[in-house]
Structures are given as structure tokens and as C-alpha cells.
């Protein structure tokens, strides 16, 4: 059973389109992180959200943490080919050790011209 | 700063062989972790450490050992390699007070 479910698993869109990736759980997290991973490389941290209802913006990327701290979303506006990659959400359970980071299965995004 | 350095980048082992995956960070981070990444399963935590001399098990620790004799190094040992350990292994570190981890570029391990 996957603690963090990401949807969709795969997404192929045209440059300029908007998209949203979801990260859902039935568990409560003290913090949630989003990473982006390119082939042959390790994940790279994009953002951390820690407060329920928090919204963070990183240029064309908008991250939201759910009010109940069980879910998060990543919205990309006007996608570019450089956004192509594997997007991973990861959380620290509120009941677990602060050093155990649980990852979702990822969303593979492909942005084409 | 080099960040998190993992060696080797690629390795092929025969079933039953042992080996050590190396991980070193030069950021003086207290926390270090080992993950494995398999298709469709995301990254799963193998072992982690909160400081020199302190280690603990993650989600999938069987078949792996770790030690943390210094802040900088966190090697992962495979005692007797099995085909089920074919995976991409990532080492990651973070510092106290920051949630996000810095990852190495991974070791792709194949056990035949």
C-alpha cells in the first residue's frame, strides 16, 4: 500500500498548456516536499510546505498544501519543454520520525513543442 | 561544494557477492539516508542516520548494513547480493532545521 498516491502517473502535453499534479494520502504529514528528477540524476528539491493551506509560488509553479495536511498539488502554468521530468512528492508523517521521508510513486511529465 | 557524492555510478554483481556503495557529503549535514528507486514504486528508505554513530532502519532494510563513523561518510553494504537488489540507489543528506534533502546522482546496481 502506497502511503502517498500521485496522479496522474503520466502526462504528455503541448508547450503552453497548464497542468496540475496531485499528491494524496489518508495520513497527516508535518511537511510535504516536491522534487523534480531528470534521467540519470537524483531528485532535486523544488519546495517544502509545512503549514496547512499554505501556497508557495516558484515562477510558473504553484504548490499548495491541503488544509488538513493530507494532500498537496503542483500546478504548472504555461508549461515549457524544460519542465519535462519526473515529479515526486514526499512527506514526513506527523506520527513518524522526523527523518523518515516517504515518497509518492511520481508523475512523469513530458512537454512537447 | 561538491554536495553529495556517490560511487560507483554503475556496478554489476554476481549473486552472493558483497560490495559497498560509497556516499560522502561535504556540507556538514547531520542527517543522511539511503533510498532505492524501482520502477512503479518510487523511492523507498533503506537506512538513515541522524549523526555520527547513530543509524536506524527504514522501510526496506533487509540485506543491507550501514555505519556512520564520521559526519561526512555513510556507506551502504550489501552482504550477499540478490537479483531483487537490482535497483538504483540514492544517498541523500540534510541539515537540522531544513526539511529538504540534497541527493547524490545515484548508483545503478545490477545483480545477475
Describe this structure in words.
The complex is a heterodimer of chains A (113) and B (112). Chain A is 0% helix and 55% strand. Chain A contains no helices and 11 strands. In chain A, strands 2, 4, 5, 9, 10 and 11 form a 6-stranded mixed sheet that branches. In chain A, strands 1-3-8-7-6 form a 5-stranded antiparallel sheet, with no helix packed on it. The model of chain A has no long low-confidence stretch (mean pLDDT 93). Chain B has 112 residues and is mostly beta strands. Chain B is 0% helix and 52% strand. The interface between A and B is medium-sized, with 25 and 25 residues.
Strands of chain B, total number: 11
Which radius of gyration of chain A do the C-alpha atoms yield?
Answer: 13 Å
Q: Say what oligomer this is.
A: heterodimer
* N-end to C-end Cα span of chain A: 37 Å
The rough form of chain A would be described as globular
Largest protein-protein interface? A-B, 25 and 25 residues
The average pLDDT score of chain B comes to: 95
What is the percentage of strand-forming residues of chain B?
over 45%
Q: What's the gist of this structure?
A:
The complex is a heterodimer of chains A (113) and B (112). With 113 residues, chain A is mainly beta.
Secondary structure: elements and pairs:
The complex is a heterodimer of chains A (113) and B (112).
Chain A (H helix, E strand, L loop, with lengths): L4 E3 L2 E5 L4 E6 L4 E9 L6 E6 L5 E4 L2 E5 L5 E6 L8 E9 L7 E3 L3 E6 L1
Chain B lengths: L3 E4 L2 E4 L5 E7 L5 E8 L3 E10 L2 E4 L6 E3 L9 E3 L8 E8 L7 E2 L3 E5 L1
Parallel strand pairs in B: 2-11
Antiparallel strand pairs in B: 1-3, 3-8, 4-5, 4-9, 5-6, 7-8, 9-10, 9-11
Looking at this protein, list some descriptive labels.
heterodimer; A: 113 residues; 6-stranded mixed β-sheet; 5-stranded antiparallel β-sheet; B: 112 residues; mainly beta; 7-stranded mixed β-sheet; 52% strand; globular
